[in-house]
Amino acid sequence: MATNSLPANKAVGRAEVTRKVRRTILPIAFLLYAFNYMDRSSISYAQLTMGKELGIDVATYGAIAAIFFIAYVVLEVPSNMILAKVGARLWLARIAITWGLVTVATGFVYNVTQLYIARILLGIAEAGLFPGLILFLTYWFLNNDRGRAIGAMALAMPVALIAGSLSGGFILDHANWFGLSSWRWIFILQGLPPVLLGIWILLTLADRPSKAKWLKADEKQWLEGAIADEYAAMPGEKQDHASELRALRNPKILYLGLINALAGVATYGMTFFLPQVVSQLNPSYSPTNIGVFGAIPYACGAVVMLLLVRYADISGRRKFIVLACFATAIIGLIMTAVFRGSPVLGMLGLILLACGVIGNIPTYWALISEVLTKRQAVVGIAVINALASAGGFFGPFLIGKLATPGDTIVGMTVPMVALVLAFVLLLFVKVPARTPAQTQVQEKPHEPAQSAIEESVGRSAAEQL
């Protein structure tokens, strides 16, 4: 029974407490995820000139991009369990500082072996950030507000891709300082902000509402009590680590994770190879031009994501929307391959690819709602995300193997096949009907701007926590 929620809501003022939490917690989560994705994908622009200096062909580059995910996938679940044990402040700060330092160090590698080592270390450092952030936000937000919070954080991905694209191309053309090649400055300049952010988190972040100096005593008590009441109202389950680890054998989690892995092949294939594809569409482009034109698909994808997830929240047709996104991305890949001699039509294909790949992510996460219990969530969210990250290994690796030195686009057959398989598998997913409570939430008036967007993005990961 939710004994704290109604009385405390009247006395304390839920809206005011939520505003305080959003204002303090969400910027940290957004910046962490944005810098994380930017650092992870910075190699895609560095490769435009790094490849020639270090003697990296397209197959080797694909392997270098992919090897990041080996340690990342293996350590993601343990990382989330450590965060739950030692606290978000210490563990999130550790992740940010170490991945920033590794990124900076990557700017000083001088051969392929050192680059492989740097990418493996980066995977170790970054492992567990995304599921860790999701878990962290569940400590701060009630169920309805929690979805919106995770949705706001998820918007950092396209923002990071846009910023990374624009800054990467610009740095390549303009940063040749202290005798260091411009590609090295991509790693150095993009690696410093997370180090500073990690130090800030270590000094200021509160793990839970009870430790927040910026909340009043009654606000702390109400928020933690209301969240605890939501957990207590959930169906009971034996609280042991065996219940957590059963998520590893849950057929529904594994099936949805497989679809996510196939979608991840396309997501990371686009992330790591889009600059090379843009360069192939028009070889006369400078790195700055590639950065500008490379940002266009990401910007369009971000807009489509916002529109589609709002429609998904209103209509509830999430499966149809994800299927449509997969189909759109497949059409985009076909267009880019067929019209590779036309920069305009080829770019239109990349835009469709990005709209499908980025647009499906929040809505697909909404399809996995009502799967995880509270205890399973610590492991289950990480398992699903880890399976998606496995696609991050196979995608770049296979693209690099299939592509040739003068033709990266042919390698994009790999994500096209993966998306076709994901489309077929998703056809057989039975989506449970909405509960009366979910329908009631859907029919409530939405807050301005992003309330519907953010709720749909995060509901799948947060609703059962």
UniProtKB/TrEMBL annotation:
Alphabetized InterPro entries for the sequence: MFS, MFS_dom, MFS_trans_sf
Record's bilayer topology term: Multi-pass membrane protein
Transmembrane spans: 21-38, 58-78, 90-110, 116-142, 149-171, 183-206, 253-278, 290-308, 320-339, 345-365, 377-397, 409-429
GO terms of molecular function: transmembrane transporter activity
Gene3D superfamilies with a match to the protein in the record: MFS general substrate transporter like domains
Keyword Transport: yes
The keyword Cell cycle appears for this protein: no
Protein name, per record: MFS transporter
Organism encoding this protein: Arthrobacter globiformis
